[in-house]
């Protein structure tokens, strides 16, 4: 058996130079310090994305796009297909946990200033993937073609429609017309299963290559703590095994959520029905939704909703390009003002999400 494995390894090595990869993995080390726990959320995000890809492909075997078939196909999947309800619940819970894990990963990178030179592109690709993750959530929400998804999409695209200059064309592009119809469903289906995954896969490839090439960043000041030399651990197998252990834990959490809190289907969408009372967006859009509710209809001479959207647009852009204007971190200095801004953003998101949820 051992000889067979050695021969197999040599056969593959002669063709793809596995020895180079093994040599590279053997030299890879991960810094160890009191903030090391945050290193694992990038791997958790990747694991949750893989779960969504696998369960998404399984759902595609039964899903039928179109306003006359989408709801019925999900209903059939959940009631007639063996473990169909479980696969859908796992896909939905994994999607929500994916955004949560990606958000935690993003803020941990921000507070550790891991975006500073030479990791600017790594940060930008990560942020673009985070925006795409929100796009996955928004487009996937409509696919069951149920009542809540229909009106949530209507509200969401209405908000996009008030963006100055490009709002109206953007609304027509997203909906495939003036109203939310079967054309909108087909368009969102295309975004969800083809356009977004294609772009995301390219960005993920670049992101992972850069992480491997540059290694894992050390937070500012950590390497000089108490004048001691920084501790490290081998990536393979020590860090990888810890990563896999955490993945197993996350898989158990998803299984518990999917079994005890299965994802509901609700009623089929009816364009002529009135919107359900108290309709709300998904939790990751809640803080923005709640903020727009508090802005007055008119602020001086600007429409309040437009002002709110412009504020979030500018804030998102500044967050995306933070490595290029945070000059203090680039010079290796602590930027306390930026840390306070980051803490305020975290507190703001949590507070307004809770208020929106309870409202």
Secondary structure elements and pairings:
Elements: H1 2-16, H2 18-26, E1 29-32, H3 40-60, H4 70-79, H5 84-112, H6 120-142, H7 147-161, H8 167-175, H9 182-214, E2 231-234, H10 235-260, H11 283-294, E3 298-299, E4 302-303, H12 304-320, H13 322-325, H14 327-330, H15 336-358
Antiparallel strand pairs: 1-2, 3-4
Q: What's the number of extended β-strand segments?
A: 4
Order of helices and strands: HHEHHHHHHHEHHEEHHHH
The largest beta-sheet arranges its strands as 1-2
Query: Which residue ranges are poorly predicted, with pLDDT under 50 across at least 5 consecutive positions?
Result: none
Could you explain how this protein is built, in words?
The protein has 359 residues and is mainly alpha-helical. The chain contains 15 helices and 4 strands. The chain has a two-stranded antiparallel sheet. Strands 3-4 form a two-stranded antiparallel ribbon. The mean pLDDT is 92.
Please outline what is shown here:
With 359 residues, the protein is mainly α. It is 70% helix and 3% strand.
């Amino acid at each position: 058996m051992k000889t067979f494995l050695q021969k197999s390894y040599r056969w593959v090595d002669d063709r793809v130079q596995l020895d180079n990869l093994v040599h590279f993995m053997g030299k890879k080390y991960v810094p160890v310090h009191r903030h090391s726990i945050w290193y694992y959320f990038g791997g958790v995000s990747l694991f949750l994305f893989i779960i969504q890809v696998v369960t998404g492909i399984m759902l595609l075997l039964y899903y039928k796009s179109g306003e006359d078939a989408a709801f019925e196909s999900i209903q059939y999947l959940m009631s007639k297909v063996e473990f169909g309800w479980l696969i859908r619940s796992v896909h939905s819970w994994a999607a929500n946990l994916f955004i949560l894990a990606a958000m935690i990963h993003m803020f941990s990178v921000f507070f550790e200033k891991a975006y500073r030179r030479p990791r600017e592109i790594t940060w930008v690709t990560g942020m673009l993937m985070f925006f795409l993750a929100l796009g996955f959530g928004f487009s996937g929400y409509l696919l069951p073609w149920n009542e809540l998804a229909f009106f949530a999409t209507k509200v969401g695209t209405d908000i996009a429609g008030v963006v100055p200059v490009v709002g109206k064309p953007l609304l027509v592009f997203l909906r495939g017309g003036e109203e939310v119809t079967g054309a909108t469903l087909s368009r969102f289906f295309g975004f969800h299963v083809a356009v977004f995954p294609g772009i995301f896969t390219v960005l993920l490839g670049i992101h992972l290559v850069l992480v491997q090439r540059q290694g894992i960043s050390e937070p500012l000041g950590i390497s000089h703590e108490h004048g001691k030399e920084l501790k490290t651990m081998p990536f393979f197998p020590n860090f990888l095994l810890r990563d896999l252990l955490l993945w197993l834990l996350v898989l158990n959490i998803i299984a518990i959520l999917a079994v005890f809190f299965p994802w509901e289907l609700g009623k089929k969408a009816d364009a002529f029905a009135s919107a359900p009372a108290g309709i709300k967006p998904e939790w990751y859009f809640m803080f923005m939704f709640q903020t727009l509710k508090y802005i007055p209809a008119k602020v001086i001479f600007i429409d309040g909703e437009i002002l709110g959207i412009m504020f979030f647009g500018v804030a998102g852009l500044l967050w995306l390009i933070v490595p290029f204007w945070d000059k203090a971190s680039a010079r290796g200095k602590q930027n306390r003002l930026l840390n306070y801004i980051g803490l305020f953003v975290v507190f703001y998101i949590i507070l307004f999400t809770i208020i929106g949820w309870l409202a």
